[in-house]
Amino acid sequence: MKLKPALTLLHITLTLWLLASCSQAAPAPTPTIQPPPTDTPTDTATLTPVSTDTPTPAPTSTSTPSPSPTMTPEPLLVIQVVDEENGEALAGATVKLTHSRLQFDASQTTNTDGQATFDDVQASRWAYETVVTAQGYHDIRDKITVEPGENNLTINLTPRVLALVTSESANLRSGPGDVYDVVGAVNQDAILPVVGQSEDGEWLVVETAKGETAWLSGTLVDVEGELSRVTTLASPPTPSPTMTMTPEPTFTPTPPPAVAVAPAPPPAAPPSGDNLLVNPGFEHGPVGWTLRNGGTPWLYSISDYAQFIHSGDKALVYGAYQYIDNVTPGVTYRFGAWARTWSSPDEDRTVSKNPGNIAMLVCINVAGEDVVGLETTICSGGGNPLDTWQYYSIDAIATSTRIVVFLHIQAPMAPRHNEGFWDDAFLSVAPVAATPTPPPAPAPTRPDPIPFGGVALRDSMAHLQWVIEQMGGLLDRVYSGQAGSCSEYLDYYAQTIQITTYHSIPDEWQGVYNEYVWSADNVLATNEQIYLLCQSGGGKVSQLNYGLARSGIHDTLPRLIPAIATANALLGQ
Questions:
Q1: How many CA atoms lie within 13 A of 303 on its CB side?
Q2: pLDDT tens string 263-285
Q3: Within 10 A of 370 (CB to CB), how many other CB atoms are there?
Q4: 137 secondary structure, DSSP code
Q5: Sequence spans of domains, the chain
Q6: Contact at 8 Å (CB) between 290 and 141?
Q7: CATH number listed for the domain at residues 162-232
Q8: In 3D, which of 331, 358, 330 has the Cα closest to residue 342?
Q9: How many angstroms separate the CA atoms of 393 and 528, rounded?
Q10: How many angstroms separate the Cα of 277 from the Cα of each of 289, 318, 337, 398, 518?
């Protein structure tokens, strides 16, 4: 039978499909082919739309970059030191920088370019105290404020001329020649500033220890510095020929006239407020102070002689001065310090024997000049506090923006030892008196020291404690205006002045004794305005003066009471 062409074609197609499938791993079953229905239409699939929304991504936490900090430049201080006359750089000068608040103390020596560089300073609104010294030049003291970044400063030094006495002694005269009066004498090795010379250059005008000027023969000295830098002065008129001249022995020193020592004034209260002085207790050595002959102030430490230290570790021997800038003209300033003297031909420094008539004075030059013997220098009365501490003060009205304060001593040439000591100086605006008062009557004085006794000292300290406690109670009554309180208060104040003092203190007792004397002196100083008010008949006590007096008592007892306990321990009680 013959196949139809359509079936034959289908058969061939199936055969080829089967052959292709034989190459697979598992043969597929032969599909059954069914013809599609002819009447039922094929359903069209409905497509479900897929959401086209794009999911919102979670916010990524991106840190905001911090602004780059602005770097503050480290402070750098460069000080240039030059000769004031020729402007040349001074190599080898010493620049000392101190700052008590920042506990900074450093020194540099200028290089060949005259520069000293401080790269470890801190920027501060408080000024650094600066001292610049160089051989052959006057010292410069200044205050420097350091800002961030580089600070450049030029300091001019003035050349100085000094006369070193080479003769065994030399007379000081009122003019350039032996026909002039002798006004004083100096010993060998004395150093005097030269401020002028005669027209022929044979005589020098020098400044004395008292701040006065005198003429000195140039043949008796060696000169340090250039005399061309000093002024040539005309000779003063020669003495009248009719004047009887007393010949002076050659090279015989003439002792200075005796100093009239006024009665010691009552202790004056240090003003309230900031102390305007640099290094007022000399704890930083000579910083801030200058000797009158241009040298370095001489200091004692507590390890040398504890009795010569009022507080802290150091005290000044003899005298010195300090410049204070930026004061207010027309304002009254009070300057004071604690003083003590020792005078003896012997070496025993615990007691004065056959003493000379020493005078200790505090002074203020209201015009900013560093000479004691000028009309612009106001000084306190002289006192001689032998073997004990006494507070001296002076008030003066500034006439310029600079004042100079002096710790001054006048001492005779005999006996062998005449030493004056200064400690705990204070300068500030003077307090206003509570009421105008007439000059007070002479104050009680402290008796001379007596030989030491442990039990006696302990009993004196116990009595002082009782007196101070009574003063505290009376102070409140005086402040409240209770009648009759002033007279009692004056009695206790006098007892505090008149405490028993001692000499020949053993080393183990010296600290106890210092606390005893300090306690009395501190109460006297802080209560002085109340004392003056009561002495003048009474009146209204200001809050300021009451507060100062009250704080003095409160500060004193916590130091006196433990000192009494130490005294008892030393006595074995």
A1: 0
A2: 444 445 455 567 899 989 998 88
A3: 18
A4: B
A5: 76-156, 162-232, 258-431, 448-573
A6: yes
A7: 2.30.30.40
A8: 358
A9: 12
A10: 10, 18, 11, 15, 21
Q: Say how many C-beta atoms besides its own lie within 10 A of residue 150's C-beta.
A: 12
Helices (H), 443-526: 454-479, 485-497, 507-526
- The residue with tokens 């009239």 is 260
Q: What is the CATH number of domain 448-573?
A: 1.20.120
pLDDT per residue as tens digits for the range 445-487: 888 899 999 999 999 999 999 999 988 888 888 887 775 678 8
- The upper half-sphere exposure of residue 390, i.e. CA atoms within 13 Å in the direction of its Cβ, equals 30
CATH number 2.60.40.10 is the correct assignment for the domain at 76-156: yes
d(CA 381, CA 456): 33
Question: Amino acid identity of 432?
Answer: V
Q: Which CATH number describes the domain made up of 258-431?
A: 2.60.120.260
Displacement of CA 335 from its chain's centroid (Å): 15
User: How many Å apart are CA 31 and CA 33, to the nearest integer?
Assistant: 6
Task: Give CA–CA dist 5/417, Å, rounded.
Answer: 159
Q: Is 535 helix (H, G, I), strand (E, B) or coil?
A: helix
Specify the pTM. Answer: 0.37
Host H or E run for residue 334: strand 332-344
**Contact yes or no for 519/464 (Cβ under 8 A):** yes
